[in-house]
UniProtKB/TrEMBL annotation:
Protein EC: 2.5.1.17
NCBIfam families, sorted: PduO_Nterm (TIGR00636)
Pathway: Cofactor biosynthesis; adenosylcobalamin biosynthesis; adenosylcobalamin from cob(II)yrinate a,c-diamide: step 2/7
Listed InterPro entries: CblAdoTrfase-like (IPR016030), CblAdoTrfase-like_sf (IPR036451), PduO-typ (IPR029499)
UniProt record similarity statement: Belongs to the Cob(I)alamin adenosyltransferase family.
Subunit and partners: Homotrimer.
Protein name, as recorded: Corrinoid adenosyltransferase
Keyword flag Nucleotide-binding: yes
Pfam families noted in UniProt: Cob_adeno_trans (PF01923)
Keyword Transferase attached: yes
Length: 188
């Protein structure tokens, strides 16, 4: 375990730099900091989903496990060369995704963000997850990143999409479907 913080501010970042987990310092707007910062933001948005009342126990358990894995992923991105996310984590996401998706009807239309508070928060988490994936890809263009990081986020965004559908249906609001016909003008 690393050092415990006894004082929250250190003033070392006042120059626009921050310390990585290996002790090196980088600009706060570096690709690495953007990647693990967005993973942290994603973890926070999943916390918003978990704060919603009436969540199914399996959804709560799944998202809590994801929060722990995202903390691990943030650590992996914060410490160059660290390996925390493994293929088994991605396999588990796929199994959970399949289990939640199996009872859902096939999609025939696009879904708009909505469907109750929990589903809406989950849609927000899904979009932040996609951004985190893009940030990890951008980091991989300039520094070494293990492929598991990108694959984990890609699979997680799929799981979050399925959970959006599950949560919208469970809320009684249902899924909000995109009405593509609304733009068509009647012939006449």
């Amino acid at each position: 375990m690393g050092n415990r913080l006894s004082k929250i501010y250190t003033r070392t970042g006042d120059d626009g730099s921050t310390g990585l987990g290996d002790g090196s310092r980088v600009p706060k707007d570096s690709a690495r900091v953007n990647a693990y910062g967005t993973v942290d933001e994603l973890n926070s948005t999943i916390g918003m989903v978990l704060a919603c009342v009436g969540l199914d126990a399996e959804v709560q358990e799944t998202l809590t496990q994801v929060q722990h894995e995202l903390f691990d992923l943030g650590g992996e991105l914060c410490i160059p060369g660290m390996a925390m996310i493994e293929d088994a984590d991605i396999d588990r996401l796929e199994q959970v995704l399949d289990r939640f998706n199996e009872p859902l009807p096939p999609l025939k239309d696009f879904i708009l963000p909505g469907g109750g508070m929990a589903a809406s928060c989950c849609h927000l988490a899904r979009t932040v997850c996609r951004r985190a994936e893009r940030e990890v890809i951008a980091l991989g263009r300039v520094e070494s990143v293990r492929p598991q990081a990108q694959r984990y986020l890609n699979r997680l965004s799929d799981l979050l999409f399925v959970l959006c559908r599950v949560l919208a249906r469970a809320s009684g609001h249902g899924e909000v479907l995109w009405q593509h016909e609304r733009r068509r003008k009647p012939a006449g």
